[in-house]
């Protein structure tokens, strides 16, 4: 029989619930967000568009058309961004205009290697190639979310995270030395794959480190750390703006050296160890945690022994066949640990329905986030200031999240953020279509920031809620599948600009409708507020059991509480 989630919480509560050990290990994993954020968003800086125009003929020579060099006295020339415009007089004295492509290359207002756009001439007819590497990174995220959660659930959160993090560092350095556009694009795809290994294991690990009562710390610390990461990119980009994109890339990926700290100090998830029968390592870690938290080690060990059905201290070695040696001469059969796959989710109707709805929520959050950028006018002013303002929206989203997640529950929190996001985008789109005045631009800017707040909050709430739906041995697989859905939304987002060219009100209607539908679908999902993380498939059914208000409950720490929804 598998260990239940509430029994795991018993041991975590015996450790103090939110002691130094839990906070330190939460922070150790949460700080990997610097690597994830820097590598995800650095294209804003290393792939920025540099002002340019067509180059003039070399060495003072004239422009040649059909093999004939024009006399400079017979024409005037204007060098545009993507074309050369020629006006000259023919022998019949008839004024004629010609439009030519940039025959002699491009001239940029900054150094040639200031951006990948300028170095690889990704402008004009090659302009779409400038956005392709970021699309490939998002595609890589989808691939990573599909594959890497299997390794996390099967082999552990720690090794999967550390290997992915080390690969992210290596690929980031290799990207800085790309000698061709194709190499750069392929490395961005690989970067997306391993970036998801860092993000998903971090999200799963941090929510597993606390018992149910203190799980809100995941949202608080995670939001603060992620917001800090994004804000921290602004001084990086601004200070290095005069350097080459290669130098900037090396600076952005240097934060991944943090993986060394992980290797030295990070322990494996206690929940994963228990769910996979790694009792010896689990016992070693809880003793360490008890010392850090300054609680009675013997008391914690007793709770641990009760958890796994043993009343004596476990000595994991030596093993006898399929038995573990406990005290001298005493053996106990090793439990068979259940292993699950994504198919096991789809075989169970309620869990399958939960999963399909979560996929839609993640897709809508990503679609809305990227749609905000493509359908709302750009913020007026310096691009670094604009980026800073968008990054700052992570903090009010986090404050709202903290204030309502435990008070009103997960479902109402999700609904609040999706409503904010959808309303902000719909109104901004209506104003943009109806007016182009300065006052309208100010309103659009404010509504864009509100939309960014909602989109960021929706993503955070999805990250927080999704792991609470799935049992331990499927938690990372479930989160990974949801992340794939988000990548689909992220790749569809840019097409909203094309839709707007044909139907001005189309994007606002689509995003608003998607957010409204998301709000309705949220009502079908189970509320996980105050409930332990499911450890097994059977525990998932408990999420649907409604606890009446006023019922006296006994908490894992032995105290009683009056339940209030």
UniProtKB/TrEMBL annotation:
One of its GO terms (cellular component) is membrane. The keyword Nucleotidyltransferase does not apply. It comes from the Eukaryota. Keywords: Membrane, Transmembrane, Transmembrane helix. Residues 28-530 form the Major facilitator superfamily (MFS) profile domain. One of its GO terms (molecular function) is transmembrane transporter activity. It holds the Pfam family Sugar_tr. InterPro entries: MFS_dom (IPR020846), MFS_sugar_transport-like (IPR005828), MFS_trans_sf (IPR036259). It is a multi-pass membrane protein. The chain crosses the membrane at residues 163-187, 217-240, 351-375, 387-405, 414-433, 439-465, 477-496, 502-525. It is found in: Membrane. This is Major facilitator superfamily (MFS) profile domain-containing protein. The lineage of its organism: Eukaryota, Metazoa, Spiralia, Lophotrochozoa, Mollusca.
């Amino acid at each position: 029989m598998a260990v239940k989630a509430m029994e795991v919480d018993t041991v975590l509560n015996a450790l103090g619930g939110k002691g130094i050990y839990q906070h330190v290990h939460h922070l150790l994993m949460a700080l990997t967000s610097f690597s994830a954020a820097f590598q995800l968003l650095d294209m804003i800086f290393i792939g920025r568009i540099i002002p340019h125009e067509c180059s003039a003929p070399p060495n003072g020579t004239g422009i040649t058309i059909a093999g004939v060099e024009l006399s400079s006295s017979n024409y005037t020339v204007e060098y545009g961004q993507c074309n050369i415009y020629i006006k000259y007089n023919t022998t019949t004295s008839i004024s004629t205009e010609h439009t030519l492509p940039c025959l002699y290359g491009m001239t940029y207002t900054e150094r040639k290697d200031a951006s990948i756009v300028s170095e690889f001439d990704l402008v004009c007819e090659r302009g779409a190639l400038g956005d392709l590497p970021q699309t490939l990174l998002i595609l890589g995220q989808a691939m990573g979310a599909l594959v890497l959660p299997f390794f996390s659930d099967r082999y552990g959160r720690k090794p999967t995270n550390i290997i992915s993090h080390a690969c992210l560092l290596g690929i980031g350095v290799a990207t800085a030395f790309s000698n061709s556009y194709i190499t750069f694009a392929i490395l961005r795809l690989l970067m997306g794959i391993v970036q998801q290994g860092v993000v998903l294991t971090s999200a799963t690990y941090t929510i597993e480190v606390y018992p149910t009562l203190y799980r809100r710390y995941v949202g608080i610390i995670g939001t603060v750390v992620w917001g800090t990461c994004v804000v921290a990119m602004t001084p990086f980009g601004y200070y290095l703006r005069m350097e080459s994109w290669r130098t900037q890339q090396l600076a952005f990926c240097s934060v991944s050296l943090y993986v060394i700290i992980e290797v030295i100090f990070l322990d494996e998830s206690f929940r994963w160890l228990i769910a996979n029968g790694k009792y010896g390592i689990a016992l070693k870690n809880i003793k360490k945690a008890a010392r850090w938290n300054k609680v009675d080690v013997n008391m914690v060990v007793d709770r641990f022994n009760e958890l796994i059905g043993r009343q004596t201290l476990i000595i994991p070695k030596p093993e006898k066949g399929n038995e573990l040696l406990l005290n001298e001469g005493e053996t106990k059969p090793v439990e068979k640990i259940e292993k699950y796959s994504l198919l096991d989710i789809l075989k169970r109707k309620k869990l399958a329905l939960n999963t399909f709805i979560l996929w839609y929520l993640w897709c809508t959050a990503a679609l809305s986030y990227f749609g905000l950028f493509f359908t709302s006018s750009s913020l007026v002013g310096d691009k670094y200031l604009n980026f800073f303002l968008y990054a700052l929206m992570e903090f009010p989203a986090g404050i709202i999240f903290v204030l309502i997640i435990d008070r009103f529950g997960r479902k109402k929190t999700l609904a609040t953020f999706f409503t904010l996001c959808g309303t902000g985008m719909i109104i901004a789109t209506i104003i943009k279509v109806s007016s182009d005045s300065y006052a309208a631009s100010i309103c659009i800017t404010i509504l864009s920031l509100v939309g960014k707040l909602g989109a960021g909050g929706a993503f955070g709430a999805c990250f927080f809620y999704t792991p609470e739906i799935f049992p331990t041995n499927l938690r990372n697989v479930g989160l990974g599948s949801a992340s794939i859905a988000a990548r689909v939304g992220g790749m569809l987002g840019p097409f909203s600009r094309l839709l707007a060219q044909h139907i001005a009100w189309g994007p606002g209607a689509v995003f608003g409708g998607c957010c409204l539908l998301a709000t309705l679908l949220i009502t079908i999902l189970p509320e996980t507020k105050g409930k332990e993380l499911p450890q097994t498939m059977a525990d998932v059914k408990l999420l649907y059991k409604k606890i009446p208000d006023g019922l006296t409950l006994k908490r894992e720490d032995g105290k009683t509480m009056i339940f209030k929804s």
